[in-house]
Design a protein that fits this description.
This protein is α/β, with parallel strands linked by helices and about 100 residues long. The protein has a single domain (about 1-95), classed as Rossmann fold (3-Layer(aba) Sandwich). Helix content is about 30%, strand content about 35%. A 4-stranded parallel β-sheet has the order 3-2-1-6. Strands 4-5 form a two-stranded antiparallel ribbon. The model has no long low-confidence stretch (mean pLDDT about 90).
Length: about 100
């Protein structure tokens, strides 16, 4: 099965959501599923290519609960995700 996992948090920042998505994608791959992760990045620097990860836009720091959450949202992010979904044609999309 082809599975896309969409992460709204910057992939190049450490966080619980990113850790959970990494673990979930590894487990799905161990069970012979094809997994593609779609996530933004916080830095303007090109990330080293990571297998199974497609960067779709930039994250901005949003103040929340006393910290700054690096999130991506809005029409630009939606277009990036839509293009990636159209290109990859997954069976399942996990948001």
């Amino acid at each position: 099965m082809r599975v896309v996992i969409v992460c709204p948090y910057a992939w190049d920042r450490f966080g619980g959501v990113q850790s959970h998505i990494r673990a979930l994608s590894e487990t799905l791959r161990e069970r012979d599923h094809e997994v593609q992760i779609l996530a933004p990045q916080a830095s303007g620097v090109d990330l080293v290519a990571e297998a199974g990860v497609t960067i779709v836009g930039r994250a901005v720091a949003i103040p929340a609960n006393g910290s700054m959450a690096p999130l991506s949202f809005g029409p630009v992010a939606a277009r990036g995700v839509r293009r990636a979904l159209d290109a990859w044609e997954p069976d399942v999309v996990h948001l």
